[in-house]
Amino acid sequence: MPAELSVGLVDPDVAHGSASGTDESSDDAPGVGVVAPFDFALDRELWRWAPDDVSLYLTRLPFFTTPVTVEMAVAVGDRRAVRRATRDVLTPRPGVVTFACTSGSFVSGVTGEFVLRRTMLEAGAPEATTTSGALVDALHLLGVQNLAIATPYIAAVTDRLVGYLADSGIATVASEGLGLLGNIWRVGYEQVVSIVKAVDRPEADALFISCTNLPTYDIIEPLEAALGKPVITANQVTMWASLRAIGRQAVGGGRLLEIPLQRSVA
């Protein structure tokens, strides 16, 4: 985990969404603030999950040159950078801020994911979600106990995901990684479908496609039809949880989106 364990104090003016400190109301639909890694390249995919009247306010974490390793995932989740990025997206007054990175939110375990959410809340976010936290919530709501996972990562990063899931009460029955150290966003649908089908097992209640830099929007429903079980993806679950936090449903396919808003996480 990054060395800095402290989180930022709430700026009252920022928390109320006004430079003057006044608590003005707005008739506009609440938006979603998105804190994304510097290498995130699928902005358009996130927008596809959003209803037409919900805006996304995206900001990037600081750029640095490094391959996609455990060390990079830890660096992406640095609390100082996350705190600054959260404050950056508060100006348009989103109803929720999400940390849209799978590896950066699972690499330091359950505690690390909790501290990321706390960091965003204490920086002024009215609600806070992370990709990995959203994944666990979704799996619990779907009643998934045994999961198969497909990732673009090297083995060391995939192993961190397996550990995070285990600590969250989810067993990984199979995992496959592409072993990529960069340019993950260049992976096409055909390769994603191939690895998902390869990792599926009869004992898996569902499948998870990790990494917000993998395109998945158009293949979720075909995969569910072919495999006969829920297929959850990083961008899907990120937007599902963020929109759910402001009382909205994501737009798209998959069994996850069939869960009524009224159903809460135990």
Radius of gyration: 18 Å
Give the low-pLDDT segments. Answer: 1-27
Tally of helical segments: 11
Strand order of the largest sheet: 2-1-3-4
Instruction: Report how far apart the termini are.
Output: 28 Å
Helix share bin = 25-40%
> Overall 3D geometry?
globular
Number of strands: 8
Structural class: alpha/beta
Order of helices and strands: HEHEHHEHHEHEHEHEHEH
Mean pLDDT: 87
Structure commentary:
The protein is an alpha/beta fold and 266 residues long. 39% of the residues lie in helices and 14% in strands. The chain is built from eleven helices and eight strands. It has helices at residues 12-15, 43-49, 70-76, 79-88, 102-106, 109-122, 131-142, 155-167, 189-199, 220-227, 234-245, and strands at 32-36, 56-60, 96-99, 128-130, 146-151, 171-177, 206-209, 231-233. It has a four-stranded parallel sheet with strand order 2-1-3-4, sandwiched between helices. Helix 10 (220-227) links the parallel strand 7 and strand 8. Helix 7 (131-142) crosses helix 11. It is globular, with a radius of gyration of 18 Å. Mean pLDDT is 87; it is low at 1-27. InterPro entries: Iso_Racemase_Enz_sf, MaiA/AMDase. It comes from Pseudonocardia lutea. This is Asp/Glu racemase.
